[in-house]
Amino acid sequence: MSNPYIFLIVGASGTGKGILLRALRDMGERHVVIIPKQTTRKSKTTDGDEMMSIYPKKKFDPKFDILYGNYLNKYAICSSNIWENIKKSKFQVLIVSNLKAIKKLYHHFGSLIKLIYLYSPVDKEQLEKHQKDIATEDKKEIEVRKSKIEVVHDYYVDNITVFDHVLLNIQEPEDLCDQIFRLFQYYREK
Amino acid sequence: MAARIYLIMGSPGSGKSTLLKCLANIHNFKNRVLTKIATRRVRKDDGVEMKPVDSESSVRVSKTSDLVRFVQNHLVYYKYDTTNEILTLKGPMPFEEKQEILNCIADNKCDKLAVETLYQDANVIPPIYDFVYEQYTRRYGLSTDDILKSLKENVSPVVIVNDIRTLQDIKGVFGLLTVCIFLYRNIEAREIQELQEKRGAIDASGKVDERQIKRRIEKSRVIFRKYIENIHLFNHVIVNTTTKDDLLKQMKKIVSAYSKSDKVTFVMKEDLDV
């Protein structure tokens, strides 16, 4: 039985997190569980079941105990849910680009965490169009997302040695999925 | 600072040469770029890490027994097409000719030039280079002795290696002393063309050699595929997409993390929340 690793994916807006999540959903829970999150933002058309909008409410379910802010919205993760999956020896994936949340997760789960940077050369105009397409109505949020692209890259550069792996989303979406699948395979056999 | 073996893999134009030049700017980082030996002619765009066989073999082949073994085992006829840079095997050398060379060696009549030519023309790496791989019909060699010598002097060997099996072999021998780095840069065809111009890769008509450009683009794809298939092998990825300073900063961070202690510890900054 392999260690139940938790893969934290850090990536700027437009780097392909949606593509990755779709591929992970397709893989099914036999391979990996996507950690659910609650959020104060409105639902987007690309959101999967793992993203639970509580909009217009602002108070999270108390079970969701790891809280953080991102792109002017609030998010929450349920640590007991992660422990349940660890007991079942499942691989888990969480998209999280917030440093405080990452630190809290390290504090809870230590060496089970594998930190992964998702890189893609992002075109800001395309990002804006994409955000509008998936129903991001808040113009301010779109601007923040655009402005944070370099911040996320700087965050990677400053902490390059903390990251265990890098997914390069530079050619076909299949290549990106291939990379994460191969990582799962490696950690399963480890 | 404990020496480590830095193994660097990257596509053509990803910034390998720039990175090697930058290493001198890393404070307190004693390093040595290890030269690979190659069975091909010197190219204008070869970096400092590349050495053709002929510049090395006269020094490396010190024992006559090595040479005799080499002649017995490897000597074959090759045809080298200089236009297409293709080496074709024509067949084994007749016994009489081999014997003639062996006699020359025995009589000490085989001069240095002849020895050099033997290796290069036969597309064979001298035996002292024990990590050998082939790419596009050329063979490349690295020596364990060179790596060990450097480590003993507490100088970190830096090796450019684009072959996965060799990378695994070196990792297999030196284990935790190795640090595998993939160097990534999103390079477009136009940039490759400019790079080729800069490096003087032009054809007989004075234009940039289109075949070379195509070959380099294809090589980039192949190397990215190697990365995908062996993603777990790489300890770090340098994302070389902005400035030279950014490239250097990433390398500095990596070197610094391994220099602190044997147990690598990291600090996360608070002020980069997103």
Low-confidence stretches of chain A: none
CATH architecture of the domain at 6-36 and 89-189 in chain A: 3-Layer(aba) Sandwich
Number of helices of chain B: 10
Describe the sheet with the most strands of chain A. 5 strands, parallel
Main sheet of chain A: which strands, in order across? 2-7-1-8-9
Query: Over all CA atoms, what is the radius of gyration of chain A?
Result: 16 Å
Biggest interchain interface, per-side counts: A-B, 38 and 30 residues
The biggest beta sheet of chain B is recorded as: 5 strands, parallel
- In percent, how helical is the residue content of chain B? 40-55%
| Uncertain segments of chain B | 54-62, 262-266, 269-274
Q: Oligomerization state of this entry?
A: heterodimer
How would you explain this protein's 3D organization?
- The complex is a heterodimer of chains A (190) and B (274).
- Chain A is α/β, with parallel strands linked by helices and 190 residues long.
- Chain A is built from six helices and nine strands.
- Chain A has a domain of 132 residues: P-loop containing nucleotide triphosphate hydrolases (Rossmann fold, 3-Layer(aba) Sandwich).
- In chain A, helix 1 packs across helix 6.
- The longest helix of chain A has 20 residues.
- Chain A is globular and about 45 Å long.
- Chain B has a domain of 69 residues.
- In chain B, the strands form three sheets. In chain B, strands 2-9-1-10-11 form a five-stranded parallel beta sheet, with helices on both faces.
- In chain B, a hairpin with a 4-residue loop joins strand 5 and strand 6.
- In chain B, helix 3 runs antiparallel to helix 4 and helix 8 crosses helix 9.
- Chain B is globular.
- The interface between A and B is medium-sized, with 38 and 30 residues.
